[in-house]
Amino acid sequence: MDNAKKTKGIIALDADGVLLDYHASYALAWKKAFGVLPAVKDPLAYWPIDRWSVQRVTGDELERFRQCFNMEFWSTIPALPGALEACHLLKNAGYNLVCVSALKQTYRLSRLQNIRDHGFPIDDVVATEHSDADTSPKAKALSTLKPVAFVDDYLPYFRGVPANIHMALIIREPNGSPNIGDELNNISSSHSDLMEFANWWIHRAPDAES
Known about the structure:
disordered N terminus; Rossmann fold; globular; 9 helices; 2 domains; alpha/beta
């Protein structure tokens, strides 16, 4: 109970693109499926299929590729530079960290193992399967968690998130990015990566710590 009183609240963190380098693992999955590690085509591409020199596959080849996105894949994605240090900064500042990821429930424990293997001080993973609905698949979980802040790198995942939650968007590779348009007006802050957010949140946003 004493620890609960001391905490400044929960910060909810997305995984791929915030904590973990999905781009790198995508290339390794391609190599596993087809025997060739793809070269970088566009280092500023938001989506991995545009970043790597790969072709769109269909039929049996697509199924072979999909089979590589298994429990091993979701438990071995490398951490993004600075993400671990950023999480420790937030944890040491008094926040509890929870990963909220648009991921099939089947792979929730694989993702939890992945972040724990990296040493992330994250209490749990909440899996919210992807949806094409107008409201973010993460909105319901966030309404339940009631974090003081939510950090994601995909603008549509802020749709329907309660307005009292600080919404921090990670602005990463610009080419083909969905992080454009009028919905940017709904974001509370934007940052180049999780480390920039952590430093800003701790040192420049005292109101967010209430």
